[in-house]
Amino acid sequence: MLYSTLDMRRLFPYVFLYNPFVVDLMDITVAYFHPLLHPETVKRDFDRLRAAGAGSIVYAIHEQEEQRWQRELERGLRQAQDAGLKVHLSLSRYGNLFAGPLLVPSWYTFRHPQSRVMDRHGRHHDISCFNHEVVRSWLFKEIEHYLSAYPINGIFIDEPRNPDVTCFCSVCRALCPDVTDLPRFRRRSMVDFLNELCACVKRVDAHAKTTIALLPNDLSQLDDLAALPALDTIACHPFWYLLNQDVASVEKWGHSVVEAARRHQKRSQLWLQNFNLDEIGEKQLEPAFTQLLSAEPDELACYYYWRNNVNPMSVWQTTLELLRRIPRRQLYWHSSSTQIKEKEVS
After folding, report:
1. Exposed site from 79, 255, 287, 344, fewest CB < 10 Å?
2. Alpha helices of 176-295 — where are they, by DSSP H?
3. Do 271 and 301 contact (CB within 8 A), yes or no?
């Protein structure tokens, strides 16, 4: 009798968790939200991530940063690729449309106040309306610039913001004259905007990968987003501790994402919350990790020494031990690179 990979995983789970020769394995992505200013430190960090089994990093950039340190950005991202890490760039807080590691305002929104979302009472909010063609044009030009100027393998769309407030700006009103339909129109136009964004990436570089990461509160959008033709990966941040949810929620959220991705022949990516943990949260890292694995995503992701942990060293060491349970793919993703031996990282 022939079994699919999924059947084999269910029948022989320990083989798939610990056997390095299994073909259909998970990829590992790590968010590296640290400065690229010191080449020796950056090289050490990237070598550690490769030794931990990572194949990709997510690097976040804010609008003002690229203008100040293009050389460091190009050198640092090149170092990542030289270490065997694919680079996925996150456009953080651009137009205040996406999440990002720093709570900084968008330069574009500040300099173009006419682009802001306006509620039914005429009050403006600190986010640009994605239905403005000038906003889309600006953002797509930024994407074209980064993909053309820097060593980048993909664009990571981090928690796209669909604000609770319905936009009543002149552009939205013109596109949707029926005021009663504006909330639904806003949701539909958000999907349309993300579809155009992903298509823009593919026009510039057909090989560049596109990823959209959602919070659990936004999983109602899963099927609409997973159906986007130019989207490669649908991701979720099942941050149970940050959201004050029981750790058992991780498995439920994870299965929802993986199932939606499979329905639309897309890749799935689940993130481990290894930041903002006190001692209690740190003890729940392993069960959260186990639940992520049980959902059988294509990729598992986490953060490298990220913020606000009570015991930062301990949290990373625990994360590292958990990552080592995932069977490795070939250590380097491009065949011309020199293989490095896996080493102990502490």
Report:
1. 344
2. 182-204, 222-226, 249-263, 279-283, 285-294
3. yes
Amino acid of residue 38:
H
Report which residue type is found at 192: D
Q: What token pair was written down for 333? A: 């993703």
- CA-CA distance, 27 to 35, in Å (whole number)? 24
What are the backbone dihedrals phi and psi of residue 157, each rounded to the nearest 5 degrees, phi first? Answer: -100, 105
Host H or E run for residue 270: strand 267-271
CA 57, 44, 77 angle in degrees (round to 5)?
Answer: 40
Range list of H helices, 123-248: 133-149, 170-175, 182-204, 222-226
User: pLDDT tens-digit profile of 236-250?
Assistant: 999 999 999 999 999
Burial of 306 (0-12, 13-18, 19+ CB in 10 A): buried
The pLDDT assigned to 64 comes to 85
What is the rounded distance in angstroms from the CA atom of residue 167 to the CA atom of residue 161? 13
61 forms beta bridges with 91
> Residue 229 in 3-state DSSP?
coil
Q: Report the pLDDT value the prediction gives residue 164, as an integer from 0 to 100.
A: 74
User: How is residue 246 annotated by DSSP?
Assistant: -
| C-alpha distances out from residue 327 to 9, 26, 342, Å | 13, 7, 13
Place of tokens 């760039």: 89
Assigned token pair, 106: 């968008």
Mean pLDDT estimate for the chain: 88
Question: Is the pLDDT at 281 greater than 80, yes or no?
Answer: yes
Banded pLDDT at 1 (limits 50, 70, 90): very low
Confidence class of residue 6 from pLDDT cuts 50, 70 and 90?
very low
What CA dihedral angle connects 213, 84, 289 and 279, to 10 degrees?
-100
Our measurement of the distance from residue 235's CA atom to the centroid of its chain's CA atoms, rounded to an integer in Å, reads 6
| Angle at 200 (CA atoms; ends 199, 203), nearest 5 degrees | 85
Q: Inform me whether the pLDDT recorded for 185 exceeds 80.
A: yes
CB 63 within 8 A of CB 108: yes
